[in-house]
Specification:
alpha+beta, NPR2-like, GTPase activator activity, two-stranded antiparallel sheet, six-stranded antiparallel sheet, elongated, Nitrogen permease regulator 2, 25 helices
Length: about 550
């Protein structure tokens, strides 16, 4: 679908109409001249809508007449100096019937309100007629010589708005008409943005930034890099998360940013029903080839698949007892994932964060002489993703192909998600009801019960965690010290973090959201949840 702005519909005719005390409603001026007669627009048929009753004045009116659409803002000024105690006028803009008039409507309304004020202050329109018929007999009317001409005003409005979509027309020394037509975007859809979402810019934000922007917007722009989640952006920019979300919504509305998920090697992706578009649309495959390839000399794919420490932990029997069997394989690759994301982002900072198109990437980092991965190879890699396979397992299975073709895995996955070639399978921890009882639920049920200090009991979650910690503290094997960085983090869980965790478990929130709230890795969160009670992971 073509979303490019193709310009404004031209104005067909502009005319100025008044209510004459003796002649009634009439057209005083029009531009182009005699246009109403040339196109068979009968003013007598529409005059009651052009100069309506006072009840319809001072509001924007749209009239459909034959093959035309008339938009106006009728004005009625009451004053005892007028012959009939009022003066009615209207600037009417005529468009083709199927024209989109929304961009013009604010300007037309503002034009009517402006001349209403000028008429009340100086009677500029009634005096411009150069006749005393609009005023009471005996009224001392001073027709001051002025350069203001309604006919000239209509001509300049018509020509400037049709040619330049803006105008600046002086009226006198202290007033001028300043109009600029803006395209009307569709109302923003109800985009649900969460703190774990990752904004990715699709334009170069540095080129459109304005120093007059909102301070929060200016503070978060440097951290919109396709890697940082909204939580991280909030922390890095020292901004309120809710304000960051509102800023991201504005950028999404103006097609500057899109939302993706947090890239982790524990994520699961699967091909969508639109994967055939990769073969049918040559531009998708072409853009993918240029976007996902690593720059020459990159050593990202030379990083080890797992650290020695992670290998020992995975082979430890103690690890299998301490952690639930439902944990993912993310722990063995977490250190590699962090290094991978940092190195990848540094290597592609000048191209990956500004656009997803291949053109800008080629301009910033020419790839002459570099062999791009074939479309068949990329399609096979997307097709090999499946519902039960993490990115880590998929990466190990296809490591040789990925390395030989110099593919940036993070950008490869991002491109697939953004173009809906693949979709993210989210994971949700669900506690077993028999083994899990949130202290928050008990607190809510007893909110209205008055207790003495002797009745206060320890928090259920504290009791469970303390019991587990005491058992774990008795184990003195040397190999368990390597688990301290992972399991030991749960011992430092503060009271507020406990409440956040229990609340998230009650609401069945995803791992991404829980990790973002607690500021911990998925491995650490899984360890803490497994200590609280039995749980299962649901993929959706």
């Amino acid at each position: 679908m073509n979303t490019q702005f193709e310009g404004f519909e031209p104005i067909h005719t502009i005319f100025f109409s008044i209510f004459h005390p003796t002649e009634g409603s009439k057209v005083c001026y029009q531009f182009p001249p005699e246009n109403l007669q040339a196109y068979n627009i009968n003013f007598d048929s529409i005059k009651n809508f052009v100069i309506p009753k006072p009840q319809l004045c001072h509001r924007l009116l749209t009239l459909e007449y034959k093959n035309y659409r008339l938009v106006s803002y009728p004005v009625n000024v009451s004053s005892s100096s007028y012959a009939r105690n009022f003066f009615s006028f209207n600037f009417v803009f005529i468009f083709s019937y199927d024209c989109q008039t929304l961009p013009y409507e604010p300007a037309i309304e503002r034009l009517g309100k402006m001349f209403k004020t000028l008429e009340e202050q100086s009677q500029i329109l009634s005096k411009s007629q150069r006749t005393s018929a609009f005023f009471k007999d005996g009224e001392d009317v001073d027709f001051v010589d002025t350069k203001f001409s309604i006919q000239d005003l209509l001509m300049r409005l018509y020509q400037d708005l049709n040619n330049y979509s803006e105008c600046l027309i002086p009226i006198d020394e202290g007033n001028e008409i300043n109009i600029k037509i803006f395209p009307v975007l569709k109302p923003p859809t109800s985009v649900q943005i969460s703190i774990e979402d990752v904004p990715l810019s699709i334009v170069n934000l540095d080129k459109i930034v304005d120093l007059n922007w909102d301070p929060t917007m200016l503070s978060i722009l440097p951290f919109i890099d396709g890697v940082n989640s909204i939580t991280n952006i909030s922390h890095l920019s020292d901004s309120d998360p809710n304000l960051v979300i509102e800023c991201i919504k504005h950028l999404i509305y103006y097609n500057c940013v899109i939302i993706t998920d947090i890239f982790q090697f524990s994520n699961i992706y699967a091909p969508s029903s639109l994967i055939n578009n990769f073969l049918r649309d040559p531009m998708i495959a072409f853009n993918c080839q240029s976007y996902v390839v690593l720059p020459p000399g990159s050593k990202i794919n030379d990083l080890p698949l797992a650290s020695e420490q992670d290998d020992e932990i995975n082979n430890s029997d103690m690890t299998q007892k301490a952690l639930s069997s439902s944990r993912s394989s993310f722990s063995s690759y977490f250190s590699h994932k962090s290094a991978y994301a940092r190195v990848s982002e540094t290597a592609h900072h000048h191209q990956s964060t500004s656009t997803l198109s291949s053109s800008e990437g080629q301009q910033d980092n020419p790839r002459q002489g570099q062999v791009l991965p074939s479309k068949c190879t990329l399609f096979d890699l997307y097709r090999s993703l499946n519902y039960g396979c993490t990115v880590e397992a998929w990466y190990k299975q296809n490591f040789s192909t990925i390395k030989e073709n110099h593919i940036d895995v993070r950008k490869f996955i991002k491109f697939g998600v953004i173009n809906k070639i693949i979709y993210r399978v989210h994971q949700y921890p669900i506690m077993e009801h028999k083994t899990f009882k949130s202290p928050l639920l008990s607190d809510r049920q007893n909110d209205k019960i008055v207790l003495s200090t002797s009745d206060i009991k320890f928090d259920v979650g504290d009791r469970i965690l303390n019991s587990i910690y005491n058992k774990l503290s008795k184990v003195t094997f040397d190999r368990d010290k390597k688990l301290e960085s992972k399991i030991g983090n749960s011992r430092n869980l503060g009271e507020s973090e406990k409440n956040i965790l229990f609340n998230a478990l009650e609401r069945h929130e995803s791992f991404d959201r829980i990790c973002s709230k607690l500021g911990k890795s998925k491995n650490e969160v899984e360890s803490i949840i497994s200590e609280i009670g039995e749980y299962m992971t649901i993929n959706s």
